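Please, why this fold?
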Amino acid sequence: MFGDNVMPPRKIFLTATKMEKSITSAENLSKHAANRLLEELCSMGPIKSHNSLEKLKSYISEYIKFLPGPLTPQKYCNLDFNPEIDSILYGKILEEIIEKFDHNWPVQENTLDPILKQLLIVDGATLLILTESLNALILALKETKNERKIFVISIILEQLLKSDSLFSAIVNTCKYQVQNVIQQEEFDETWRKLVQILVSLPNRVANKLKNKIFDSFLPEKYFKIICFHIAHAISFINIGLHYDIKAELKLLSFLISKLVIITNSENLLSFTNILTEWCFENKNNERDIIQNILKALDTSSIEPIAVLFLKYCDINLGIYQIFGDILLNSNWKYILTTKIPLMCYYKDDNLIINLISYLAQFLNNNRILIELLMKLLDIWGNKSALNHTSVEQHKYITKLIIMCVRKCKHHLNRNEKDNIQRLLFSGISVHLESTHIILRAMGMSVGEIFTNELSESDDAPKLSFEYNNMPDEITDLVQSLKNLAIEIKVSKEKEQIKRNDLITENIEFNTLGDKKLYELGIECNLLSKKNIEEKYNKNNQISINNSKESIILSKQNLTDNIINKSNIESDSELDSDDDLIPYDMSHDTKVSKKLRPAYLRDLRDNLVNDKNSNNPDIFSESLQVCEELILSQLPNDDVSFAIELLELFITLKESCYVENFEILTFKACVAIVTIYPKDCAEFLCRQFYLEVDKYSVSQRLFFLDILSYSARKLSTIPLHENKKDIINEAKMKQKTKEISNKVSLFINTEKSQQYKILYSDDFDEFEKSFEKDVKENWREIVDKRIESNTKRYAHSIKISKTFENKFGNIASSFFYPLLYGFGKENTCLNSGLQIFTDQENILLIRFLETLSTIMIAAQNCLLASKMGKELLELSWILRYHEQAKVRLAVIENVAAVIIAIPKNTIVNELFEICMEIRLWLLDLSQNVISGDHDKDCRDLGAKVLFLIDSIIGTIGLPSVTNLLTPTSTNSKNQISNNTSTQIGSTWAGSGLNIDLDNIMGSKAKQTGPAPTMNQLASNSPQHQIKLMTSSTIGYTSPMIQSQQQKQQHINPAFFPAFQ
């Protein structure tokens, strides 16, 4: 890995001088590129077109040329240099770029843009670069609420975690550098921040992704990835130590300490296994660097990692080769001699054997193990301690005592033996007095073992107890204590198996630790097995010799091979006769989809540009994606651009065939109107009333459809919002298996007693199922008991769910611009030319239907009463239109008003006009002579009349039905001639006789014709303003002027109070 060639001093000096000059110029160029990129980012705003994105990418490409490349031995040995990057400027660039993330960039189909990847994920990152990158991503992750952006940032963090950035940052951080005090403090603070980010990153991502978190951020896998980078860095730094490149191992120890504290120690098992193998083999002197790292660990992290080593190291090899003289460290000494043996207890015998075996290594130098034995015996024989400790902990202390006496029996002097025997016999008597059979058995077995181990000759008297009357589990326990720590020597056959284990899949490793490091990289998807095998077969350079350069796989073999996530069929699945391997095209993107625009301005250009619009693929794909782009991007754009797009779509022609062209354009227009409803609705209304030659009838109908559907969509209320939750809860409820009742040994002979058959299959799982059922249902049982014994004097009020009508605030923008254009001259509804009558009727019908839809959408809005009043006046004018479908639409308008306006508002504000319309509907639907000739109009009129009667009934007025009787034509004409001078023109020729002076409240004789009902309504105070506006509105259409004279007379029987 590191070369042995040494250059002459003069040549080195000249080379270094030239290199320094080139680095200085490169740094100036990098700052210039960074400033240009930052200026472009601050001035461009959101990405709105493909051209602006490509321009941004070009600036990024210029800047990433100066970022550090992958870490190499030459750079670590200072034979190669990277230009220094301004980390603060780099962080600002990342913050600005992250703000530019949108639905299309930088991730498409879960693939990160390669140019941005080189900017955010720097393989040769330094501490400052990696810290700035993580800070920018985490800050954006914390502040954003956009699910798409959260997903993109999580993908970037995952790829950054799996890259060489962390490995490179660790190596560069641990490399010794000459710094002053201030620089050193800043450097250490930056490292602490980076470590804090690393240990908290899974929680940060999980808080945002919730149940959609990636596997890489689950604790088990996440900490394995971190451990891979740490182990890789330790191996790399160890090689540098051979070339006198100093390292600050305290920083690495600080990172390991944080990992041990923050996570379950079992997640670091793979890391400790790698260190264990390196220490046992020690082919490249890894033992020294590992022991120095362990010595510098924080006090709080020593116990978990020590327990890992003690549990999982081979008892035949021990842990002395891993720990060395670490016992001389005060923190480690306290953990190994006090906390683990005296303050904790473990069930693993390996831990006990490894711990005592390690302490026994120091018997020649100090008496630590003997002192520990004395303390353990004192606790073991203490009656109070025996009564206040658990059986498991006492068993743990007993095993420690047995191991201690077996390891130190040859190092005890006479005085120490006497003290041990004194403590032993007092402890045995305490155990024999205990009522617990296990404690008695442990006391007897310890007494036997001690007398055997401490006896000076075979003829010395020995202690012996009888265990015949004790249960089998007691005898097994006694036997296990006697057989504890029987030494087994390593056989040569086992060593041969280990050598064979170094070869796997045509790759030969130098040590078993290297192999485990490789397997960990494969497990975490950091290395590609296929790529490594190909490199081996091609170059035949993977085989690792015993030289110092081959501690680990070369960097190209270990870390440049990011896992290829696509599934590739194995050779075994292919025909043996096939010469060519079929290419996997399952994940390929269709050519047509590549033509889809990613931004709204690109969509506009594709539809406007003649070259693109005449291309069937571009035109079709642009229309397919237009609604999605509008809904995702237009809310962040300008209103003027929305109007521009709307004008484009309402006039768009089908230059090439597109399936469902009308539906796609309609959906696009509705999406635009729902995003900016006020301005777009007013624009459509203006376009609807433009000159006749401006738009065709179909286009104007298209405008009305957009308005009506948009109003309906804006006012939609989600009726089944929690339907999915209800379904999920129902699925989660699992049926519990009914188990048989407990078997009773007493037989109840009463006839009323019911018995259940206990089948043979119930016996197998009887106890298990019963215990499981009790554990699962105890809470349900308690809740039922509480519920049955609880008296309730009041019940909580169920609050009904309410929803905001988004159409309420912009209803006037839909209704009034459309309504006030009616009746104006030279419009589509009043052209003044006879040839356009049919077109005007078609438009009028759709116009009235659109007003009805808007009125229904405005239900419960503040302007609903005013809008209803206007719509009823329009309906009164058009009630005698010559076209039956127009009259049907008029009746629908009346029904829409009655439905949309509350009853109290109708009674208080619209009562007079509703009474007039009611009488008209009564005549229309029930008078067979003067009623409407169209059956649909009569049927709908009767239904609306019933609706009005239901409202009149709520205020205490009797509903009037079946009052008009058929009369002959002669009598009708006679009544009409006799009363023509007394009633108004409104009721002339109706066959009804009423003196309208009573309604006006005047008893004096009046000359001339009586005023009509419309005139009476207009003279009321609430209609004074309407007289001024009605002339400008222009409701009197030429189509209905002939119908306004067809008024009806009212029978006096209708108003008995005025007779």
